[in-house]
Amino acid sequence: MSEENLERLRPRLEEWDPKAEVEAARRGQPIPGIEVIDPEVTFEDAVLPDHAGETYHGYEGIMRATEQWLEAFESIDIELDRIVGTGDRVVSIHRARMKAKHTGIEFDSDLAYIWTFRDGRVIHIKGYVDLPEALAAAGLSGAI
């Protein structure tokens, strides 16, 4: 099952475009790759300070969190670097390039997400800005 989990998740992450996903959701259009995510998914994010301590539920919760994230930035470009781990818990590592709307400040940093699977679907996602913290939380400290 572990390799199947990775192969189901990888296309979603390789094509991840947060802005396009929010727009598709607003228009009631399907979101590419959403079928790998359980409709009752739980999402926790430490990427934005505004999200600290927040938990989002279901597709709608993920879209709400994504909209809040997008509000602060003029542009966001997310690129998958790699996926680490096997089994029912993996970490995706991304390069994020963002430009703040109001200040014009540009950010270039790593983001990491822990993806927890059950029965071939993602049931929990947790975002991090600290890569070592994400790997430790997933039990993959020596993975890089």
CA-based gyration radius: 15 Å
What's the main sheet like?
6 strands, mixed
CATH class: Alpha Beta
The CATH topology is given as Nuclear Transport Factor 2, Chain: A
| Class derived from helix and strand content | alpha+beta
Task: Give a written overview of the molecule.
The structure is a single chain. Helices cover 30% and strands 40% of the residues. The chain is α+β, with helices and mostly antiparallel strands and 144 residues long. The protein has one domain: Nuclear Transport Factor 2, Chain: A (Roll).
What's the helix and strand layout?
Layout lengths: L1 H13 L3 H9 L10 E9 L9 E3 H14 L1 E12 L4 E12 L5 E13 L2 E8 L2 H7 L7
Parallel strand pairs: 1-6
Antiparallel strand pairs: 1-2, 3-4, 4-5, 5-6
Helix pairs in contact: 2-3
Task: List key phrases describing it.
6-stranded mixed sheet, 144 residues, Nuclear Transport Factor 2, Chain: A, 30% helix, 6 strands, alpha+beta
Describe what is shown at a glance:
The protein has 144 residues and is α+β, with helices and mostly antiparallel strands. The chain has a single domain (2-143), classed as Nuclear Transport Factor 2, Chain: A (Roll). It is 30% helix and 40% strand.
